[in-house]
């Protein structure tokens, strides 16, 4: 069977494979992934350090439970969840706390559960066009180093990560700026101040896919299980 192409479908396939039901969305943002998983029948909790994001998630997905808090100190008992998910979230954890956040996710897993991590790489067309607005090179590399450190220390095991590409439809430069601003409204001012540079980069990196103009972003997916003591 071919691998699913979009990220939520990949995550749902993993959850189905391990027989998960209770899922923790770490760095849940406004609840987009939580909504997708609730609609698929999962019992979802989410946590995010931004109270405004949690408020939005509660409105968007009333069937799920959301808490304000950091990934490095999860307010849940050990073995509370069948799966924990970091979707484009680990690199937003403060650098000194990334490893602790992974250990916390492993702590709240039931035996046989998995921590699923999806991280954007510091490369690719989308990243290159975004970089003048927000250069996440170091934080993205730090997230990978944190995962490698947890594996090297023997705290977790897992198969080799899978790298795949996410095509993001962006009809024009205005659509790209709008996409960035939806994630973080402060990016709009930064983008408008560098519009000429962004226009040049957009023209250099845009490709045309089945659904029109798009910028590709490579993503990497890890599946971690707590090491048996």
Rounded to an integer in angstroms, the radius of gyration calculated over CA atoms is: 18 Å
Taken in chain order, the helices and strands follow as: HEHEHEEHEHHEEHHHEE
Shape: globular
| Helix percent band | 25-40%
How many helices? The count is: 9
In short, what is this structure?
This protein is α/β, with parallel strands linked by helices and 229 residues long. It is built from 9 helices and 9 strands.
Give a written overview of the molecule.
This protein is α/β, with parallel strands linked by helices. The chain has a domain at 7-121 and 135-165 and 219-226: 3-Layer(aba) Sandwich (Rossmann fold). It has nine helices and nine strands. Strands 1, 2, 3, 4, 5, 6, 7, 8 and 9 form a nine-stranded mixed beta sheet that branches. Strand 8 (207-209) and strand 9 (212-226) form a beta hairpin. Helix 4 (98-107) crosses helix 6 (137-152). The longest helix is centred in the middle third of the chain and has 16 residues, at 137-152. It is globular and about 50 Å long.
């Amino acid at each position: 069977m071919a691998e699913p192409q979009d990220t939520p479908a990949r995550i749902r396939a993993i959850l189905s494979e391990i027989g998960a039901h209770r899922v923790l969305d770490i760095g849940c943002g406004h609840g987009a992934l939580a909504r997708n998983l609730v609609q698929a029948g999962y019992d979802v909790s989410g946590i995010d350090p931004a109270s405004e994001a949690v408020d939005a998630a509660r409105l968007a997905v009333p069937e799920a439970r959301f808490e304000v808090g950091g990934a490095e100190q999860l307010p849940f008992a050990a073995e509370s969840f069948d799966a924990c998910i970091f979707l484009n979230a680990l690199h937003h954890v403060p650098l000194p706390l990334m490893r602790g956040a992974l250990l916390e996710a492993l702590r709240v897993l039931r035996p046989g559960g998995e921590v699923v991590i999806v991280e954007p790489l510091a490369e690719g067309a989308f990243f290159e066009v975004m970089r003048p607005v927000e250069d996440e090179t170091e934080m993205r590399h730090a997230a990978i180093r944190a995962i490698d450190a947890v594996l090297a220390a023997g705290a977790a095991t897992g198969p080799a990560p899978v790298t795949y590409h996410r095509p993001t439809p962006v009809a024009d430069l205005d659509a790209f700026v709008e996409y960035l601003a939806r994630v973080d409204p402060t990016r709009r001012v930064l983008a408008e101040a560098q519009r000429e540079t962004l226009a040049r980069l957009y023209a250099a990196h845009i490709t045309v896919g089945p659904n029109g103009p798009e910028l590709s972003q490579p993503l990497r997916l890890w599946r971690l299980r707590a090491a048996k003591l």
